[in-house]
Amino acid sequence: MKVVLDNNILFSLINPDSVNSYLFAALRFEFFAPEYIKSELAKYASDCLLKSKLSKHEFEMRQKEVEAGIRFCKISEFKRFLKQAKDSLPDKDDAPYVALALAIKSVIWSNDPHLKQQSLAKVFTTAELINKLLKSEF
Description:
Blueprint: E1 2-5, H1 7-13, H2 19-26, E2 30-34, H3 37-43, H4 45-52, H5 56-68, E3 70-73, H6 82-87, H7 95-104, E4 107-109, E5 123-124, H8 126-134
Parallel strand pairs: 1-2, 1-4, 2-3, 4-5
């Protein structure tokens, strides 16, 4: 299964002890994210570093490890779906995730309730993914 990660899920993956990190490792999916999300991670690196309780070196190593498991897509790969995605969302900042999901025919992993308000792409929360995994639905 193809899964688009939103920025908050990506940020949580930096903490190797987070529930999302365990789920990321357990699910043998193809993970995708818009390429610009890397700059968002860099922008909030100090917050992620603090929350993860990792040293700077451990943080950098974990970031490389996580990013190695994700295919980052340029905006040109999903640009044709951006208007449709923006029109379907109350928070236009979430449009790249929906547009990318449409472009690659995937679902989205997000705990953002705004993303659930659109009907173009299926959105799974962490709790929903855990529930499906426990029920062996994947």
